[in-house]
Amino acid sequence: xxxxxxxxxxxxxxxxxxxxxxxIPNEEAYDSVTMALKNGYTHIDTALAYKNxxxxxxxxxxxxxxxxxVFITSKLPAETKxxxxxxxAFNTTITNLGVDYLDLYLIHAPWPWGExxxxxxxxxxxxxxxxxxxxxxxxxxxxxxSNFEIENLKPILxxxxxVPHANQIPFYIGKDQEELISFCxxxxxxxxxxxxxxxxxxxxLTELKEMAKKYxxxxxxxxxRYCLEKDTLPLPKSTHEKRIIENRQLDFEISKEDxxxxxxxxxxxx
Length: 270
Hints:
Layout: E1 5-7, E2 13-15, E3 19-20, H1 26-38, E4 43-45, H2 53-63, E5 71-76, H3 83-97, E6 104-107, H4 121-136, E7 143-146, H5 150-159, E8 166-170, H6 178-186, E9 190-194, H7 206-214, H8 219-229, E10 233-235, H9 241-246, H10 256-263
């Protein structure tokens, strides 16, 4: 890949493509993460809510890769808010993973999933302050958020000491996040793109199939490369080794003209 890493505003680097483990059950996570590590991934993304941290951590330990050579992200559950609650959840996560520190820890969402859109501003501030403490203690190398819109980010910027290092959001061909991405860039927040394949919903689009042929690529490769071209960090997920390998084979660039065409595609998931 032309870009090996993104760099957070604190100087910490993060590999430019991560292996996502959302929707991978714990019993499958060991084999999937092992396949990812075997095929060159050094950035693994999980969450307490995924209920697979134990086998994600076991796969990393059993692969015998030096801890400093693998970047591990996990997340505070969306339903867990507050200072003490955040510290407790973090301790559960590093116990599950069997590690001494996390490379990146994120607030999974600004509201519990069952209360989407509800106002948890003060609770999020307290959670982030707890993460700042853990960061200052060296237990986390970088801290951030996930699924935060501009209105969710502003109170963190106003009331907390550390600007979030990352915001992990849904981003894929057809999902226009231009305003949010611009805001993040203005504040030196790295944007991570989860569901870069729209959980598979864009793979059958005729226009993507035709364009992928032009680049001698799969639709998945085109979609993941698009995320990188838009300066976002993709987190593709698969349990099939062939696709795990293909999803990192991105040694091509999409022309400006084709990027503009892709920008015009409407969100198939609306």
